[in-house]
Amino acid sequence: MVATRFWHFAIVMMALADVDVARAQALLGYTAANSANEARIEARFKAIPSATAAQQQLRVFTAEPHLAGSKRNNDLAHYIADQWRKQGLTDVVLRRYDVYTSEPGEISLEMVEPVTYRASLREAVYSQDPDTANPAIRSAWIGMSGSGDITAPVIYAHSGNPEDFALLRRNGIDVRGKIVLVRYSEPYSYRGFKAFTAEQEGAAAILIYSDPAEDGYARGKVFPDGPWGPETHFQRGAIEYDYPQIGDPTTPGWPSLPGAFHIPSAQAAAVPKIMALPLSWQDGKPLLENMDGPQAPPEWQGALPIRYHLGGERVKVHLKIKMTESLKPNYVVEGSIRGTEQPDEWVLMGNHRDALEFGAADPGSGTAAMMEMTRGLGALAKQGIRPRRTIRFLSWDGEETSFAGSGEWAEQFAPELAQKAVAYVNSDVGVSGRAFEGNSTGSFAALLVDVSKSLRDPSGRTLYESWRLTRATNPAVARTTAGVADFDLTDTHIGSGSDYAALLDRAGVPVIDVSFTGPYGVYHSAYDNFYWMSHFGDPGFRYHAALAQLLGVLVLRIANADVLPYDFGGYGAHIRGYLEELGKATDLSKLQLDGLRDAIDDFESSGGRMNAAVQAALTGSQLDPLLVDQINRAMMSVERRWLIPEGIPGRPGYKHMLYACRKTYAHLELPGLTEAAESGDVATAQQQADILARALHANAHMLNQWQQELACSAGLRGPSGSLCVSPTLSR
Ligand SMILES: [Zn+2]
Fold first, then answer.
1. Which residues crowd ion ligand 1, with CB under 5 Å?
2. pTM across the whole model
3. Would 88 disulfide with which of 352, 382, 384, 502, CB 3.0-4.6 Å?
4. Could you give the residue ranges of the DSSP H alpha helices within 505-642?
């Protein structure tokens, strides 16, 4: 296994460098003395976040629906800014972006043949949960749906994936001009991909319903008696075609600052043309049970007590959707705790604020935890305990519609981020259960494991132990007799689906994304509310407090480190894993990949040597502060070297060579190489492999130089065990 290889290598290097291995329990990136100091700071911080205060915060954020662009959501931006100022944060500002916004006007759906049925398009009210009666809750709609008024037959297209339409074709069913009815599927595929596929197939409209097989009674007890979705819940969301570009679809490549030029939405490739509407299973069932045509194959059969058919001409519906388009202000709130020693090195942490209704789990749980984290860090700052580097907090907006806040912000500040960003820690659906999940770019995988050992979750176990249990149930994770190896704990297949995508794929900022997950059948419905969270998601709110602790310790650990806790040796091993996974899934025989494999080896081994040299320097007698500062700046540049300025082929907004997502939002590694290889474009695949090889060598070369410099400065022996050679770098 590659992980074993790397650690073996690292240990050999440490032995060569005469490192005191017994001191390896020091925190990653810290000297022994500063490890002890950091542990004291973290202990003081961890004592502050409370379950009760997190609960009170969540109540504020879930009191009313707060869609991006709404008055309530903008009021919450000011609320956060006020809280942050009181908590002791500085440089609190609201950044405004005028963002393309699509909202529902008049929407109706009526079956006209063979029987009449008018879809309610509303979620039921439950007396035990007064929030469900809030008149501000919107009926069914999908962001960026096309407008129209049509009457057409309905075809059942399973999940709405290309292979589903192929099966319909084999059955002689043509969906052109018709309305397709599809399910939200398991495994998840982005609703925008379903809409895009249906539009490509020539369908006039798409209805996406929540089958109880996916998130309803087939999974367990439903709301208000359990965490799964009841018969009237439906999944809102947007369907932007954001595959080439993240953010406002009418400002591709530039920020939506007030007064900025916007292309007409009709010309924006990312704005769908197809009409789209989500349905509850209560509204979907009358359509399904009246369909004729061939019986659906067994895997298309859902959990409703009817025989599913593919449909034909029998069921006709009248669908009317009138959307309104406008530019609306979205606000990103920024707040900071300025660093004492390196104010221009930024550790970023953020969570979106906008919700599709009340948004208790998505995103309120993450926001409530963030507010408890900032309260704790602000309290330390008031006592004079400030981090060495600047920590910047961000409340994003417009995430649910187009990643507008993070997308436009990353676009605006990309040049500054290239100079200053150390890390971005993301939270979103922070708490929907108890199972810990940690994702990051390969550079932070080891740090996340290290941090998980210094926290306890409400079960009483260390977060590390709980995480190992979660990962042990994941069939995709490698295990040994000792359980899941540390190398396999962090999932580095980071993909997309939250605000970190803009920071990583657009700006080349290494990211971490953390959450506690569980049974969560009310996603993007009106039942993702305070009642759901207090009864099912996190009764007692102790996981909210645990998340606040984790987020705070993560940003403190990075912000206070002597040497930034990146692990490029491990990163190299993860990159090799991506290439091996690609080789198993796709024929690469026409490509010359020896150069790329060499480059991965080069990067991994130079990263391993850097780890060993850093470890030796940290355990040695003294650190040269100027040199450490230069090395930190150099290591910050590694992630930026993975960026292709013009973007990966056909995707100008996705600039990262290692990470992107598919149209389905499934994670995608080595995206330029993978997509070209999958489509049989050998020339482009080779070109992407060569670009990546060059970037790997460039990073390896840079790390080698600094590692030698560090080894020399510490009076240690050079990488080959020979005496230190004169450094080639100028100070
Ligand atoms: Zn979210």
1. 362-363, 428
2. 0.94
3. 382
4. 530-532, 542-560, 568-585, 594-619, 625-640
